C-alpha cells in the first residue's frame, strides 16, 4: 500500500507543479477555450492542462519502476509500454485539437488508433463473462478493446463541461478501481503489484493534483489533451483488471463474481456514460449530429434547477462515488449491506438535487 500511495503522491505533486507551466505554454501558443453560447465560463481560458497530467503520469511510472514491489510490473509484461504508447498518441491528438480544432471523424480515427496501439501490445480484453468464461479470439479482442476505449474517452469528453467536473469524476472512479484491485489482492492472496492498481493510483493522483487549478473559477482547462488522456487511463485500468480476471477465482455470493466484471466498470463510468447516451439520443431525435454541442447535459440541468457550479459538481461527484463504491462493496460485503447504503445514498442525493426547488416552495408558503 505504501508504494501505491507514494506513486499517487508523486503523480499529484508533479501534476500540480507542472500544470501552471502548461497554462503558460497554452497562453503563448494560443490554445484557448473561447466563450461560446453553450459554455458556462465567461472569459477565454487556457487549455492544455492535460500536459501537466501527463507529466504526473510519467513521474509516477518512473518512481514505480524503482520501487521493490512495483518494479515487477515492468519486468513481467509490456503493459506499461503499451499504456504509454496509447497515451502519447492521444496527447498529441489532443494538443492539435486544443490548438486548431479537429472534426469528429478525425478525432475518432485518432482515438481508435491509440486504442489499437495499446491493444496490440497487450492491454486488451481477453474474455467475457458469457456462459462462464468466454475467451475472445485476437481480432475480436482488439476490436472490443478499441470500442471500450473510444466510448470511455468520449464519455469523459462529454461530461467535461464544468470546472473540476471531469477530473473529480475520473479521480473518484480511479479510487474505486484502486480500492477494488488492492482489496482483491489483499483478501484473496493475488499478487499485489498489478498494472491496474498502479494506473488507478497514478490516475487518482493526477486528478487530485490538477483540481486546485481547475475548480471554479478555473485558471486552466484540461482540454481534449487531458480529457482523452484520463479517459484512456480509466479504460485501461478497467481492461487490465476486469477484462483479464476470471470471475470464478473471486469468492462471494453466487451471482456477484459473474456480474462484477460488467457491473464495476459500468458503475464507475455510469454518470459520464449516462450523460453521453442521453446526449446522443437527444440530438439524434432532433435530427442533429450526435456530436453537435448543446447545453442540455446533466450538469447544465443541475444549473437550471438553481444549483451553483460548485454545488452541481459536488452532486455529480456524489452520484459517481455512490455508484462506484457500491459496486466495489458488492465484492467484499453482503449484498444486503451494500443495498442499504445505496438506498440511503440515493435518498440523500435525490433530496440534495431537489433542494433549491424545495427551498423556493417553502419560501413562497
* Outline type: globular
What is the structural class? mainly alpha
Average pLDDT rating:
85
Question: What's the arrangement of strands in the largest beta sheet?
Answer: 1-2
User: Helix and strand string, N-terminal first?
Assistant: HEEHHHHEEHHHHHHHHH
Main β sheet profile: 2 strands, antiparallel
Overview of the structural elements:
By secondary structure, the chain is an all-alpha fold. The chain has one domain (2-295). Helices cover 72% and strands 2% of the residues. The strands form two sheets. It has a two-stranded antiparallel ribbon. The chain has a two-stranded antiparallel sheet with strand order 3-4. Strand 3 and strand 4 form a beta hairpin. The mean pLDDT is 85.
Attribute tags:
single chain, 365 residues, mainly alpha, two-stranded antiparallel sheet, 4 strands
Give the helices and strands, then pairings:
Elements: H1 2-29, E1 32-33, E2 45-46, H2 50-66, H3 71-76, H4 79-100, H5 104-120, E3 127-128, E4 134-135, H6 138-159, H7 165-188, H8 195-214, H9 223-241, H10 255-268, H11 270-285, H12 298-304, H13 309-329, H14 335-364
Antiparallel strand pairs: 1-2, 3-4
Amino acid at each position: 500500500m505504501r508504494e501505491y500511495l507514494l506513486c499517487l503522491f508523486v503523480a499529484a505533486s508533479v501534476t500540480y507543479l507542472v500544470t501552471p507551466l502548461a497554462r503558460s505554454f497554452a497562453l503563448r501558443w494560443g490554445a484557448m477555450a473561447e466563450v461560446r453560447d453553450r459554455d458556462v465560463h465567461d472569459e477565454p481560458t487556457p487549455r492544455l492542462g492535460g500536459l501537466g497530467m501527463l507529466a504526473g503520469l510519467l513521474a509516477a511510472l518512473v518512481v514505480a519502476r524503482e520501487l521493490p514491489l512495483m518494479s515487477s510490473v515492468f519486468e513481467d509484461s509490456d503493459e506499461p509500454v503499451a499504456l504509454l504508447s496509447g497515451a502519447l498518441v492521444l496527447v498529441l491528438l489532443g494538443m492539435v485539437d486544443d490548438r486548431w480544432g479537429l472534426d469528429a471523424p478525425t478525432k475518432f480515427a485518432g482515438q481508435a488508433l491509440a486504442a489499437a496501439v495499446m491493444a496490440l501490445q497487450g492491454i486488451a480484453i481477453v474474455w467475457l463473462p458469457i456462459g462462464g468464461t468466454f475467451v475472445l479470439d485476437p481480432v475480436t479482442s482488439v476490436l472490443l478493446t478499441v470500442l471500450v476505449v473510444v466510448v470511455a474517452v468520449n464519455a469523459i469528453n462529454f461530461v467535461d463541461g464544468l470546472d473540476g467536473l471531469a477530473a473529480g469524476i475520473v479521480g473518484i472512479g480511479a479510487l474505486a478501481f484502486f480500492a477494488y484491485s488492492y482489496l482483491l489482492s489483499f483478501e484473496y492472496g493475488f499478487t499485489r503489484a498489478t498494472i491496474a492498481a498502479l494506473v488507478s493510483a497514478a490516475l487518482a493522483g493526477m486528478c487530485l493534483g490538477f483540481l486546485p487549478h481547475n475548480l471554479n473559477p478555473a485558471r486552466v482547462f484540461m482540454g481534449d489533451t487531458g480529457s482523452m488522456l484520463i479517459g484512456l487511463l480509466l479504460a485501461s485500468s478497467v481492461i487490465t483488471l476486469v477484462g483479464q480476471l476470471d470471475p470464478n477465482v473471486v469468492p462471494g455470493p453466487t451471482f456477484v463474481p459473474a456480474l462484477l466484471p460488467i457491473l464495476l466498470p459500468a458503475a464507475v463510468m455510469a454518470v459520464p456514460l449516462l450523460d453521453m447516451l442521453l446526449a446522443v439520443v437527444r440530438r439524434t431525435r432532433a435530427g442533429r449530429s450526435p456530436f453537435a454541442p448543446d447545453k442540455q447535459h446533466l450538469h447544465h440541468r443541475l444549473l437550471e434547477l438553481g444549483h451553483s457550479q460548485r454545488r452541481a459538481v459536488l452532486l455529480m461527484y456524489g452520484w459517481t462515488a455512490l455508484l462506484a463504491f457500491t459496486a466495489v462493496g458488492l465484492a467484499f460485503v453482503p449484498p444486503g449491506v451494500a443495498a442499504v447504503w445505496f438506498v440511503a445514498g440515493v435518498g440523500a442525493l435525490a433530496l440534495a438535487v431537489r433542494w433549491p426547488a424545495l427551498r423556493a416552495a417553502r419560501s413562497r408558503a
